[in-house]
Amino acid sequence: MQSICQPVALKAGQSLGLPCADGHSKIYFLTGASVALLVESPVQHTLAVGLVGSEGAIGLGSVLSPVPGRLRCRVQTGGSAWAANSHDLAMLLHQRPGMLWVISQYLWQLAEHVATMSASVQFDDIGTRLAHWLVLSAERAQSVRLPLTHEHLAQMLGVRRVSITLAAGDLKTKGLIDYQRGVVNILDMAGLRECAHPQQAMLSAHV
Prior knowledge:
The protein is about 45% helix and about 25% strand. It is α+β, with helices and mostly antiparallel strands. The protein has two domains: about 1-120, Jelly Rolls; about 125-205, Arc Repressor Mutant, subunit A, CATH 1.10.10. A hairpin with a 5-residue loop joins strand 4 and strand 5. Helix 4 (about 125-140) packs across helix 7 (about 190-195) and helix 5 packs across helix 6. The radius of gyration is 18 Å and the shape is elongated.
């Protein structure tokens, strides 16, 4: 695998998944960055339906199908990754078919993640969704210090900036987070997890 990969540095805000000059796509195996999976509306509104970190990769679907997917990929937290050409990886999979099973398992897990995130838009309030996104961001970035502005969070959750300001203010009042100058610091991860998964917390309290 390493023979077809090159180390790259991804920058926050960078778009991934666009075809290269040779017509093939790049696949990124993340090692220090996190990437948001976005759905964009015709009027340029965005909604994040997933977040991938060092546990996963971006662009693996291009190995299985040349048809571009609807999800857009944007780097949330800059960092390192290994990049491979989709054609090169496809050739490697022909030589090592066992790798295809591993990739298929990961893509299934990613589909479950996207489904869960999509459902939360319908069933959870903004405060719960914000707490969940911050927990997820910390896990993917492996840091409790997150360079995330309110404007960025509003784009990720598909809501107005004022809604993020109110929800973040509530989390700050509870002593779970602090924020200033575009940086969110998580002060109480356990408490934030309870806000992110209130149903699970209620079940645990009755066990």
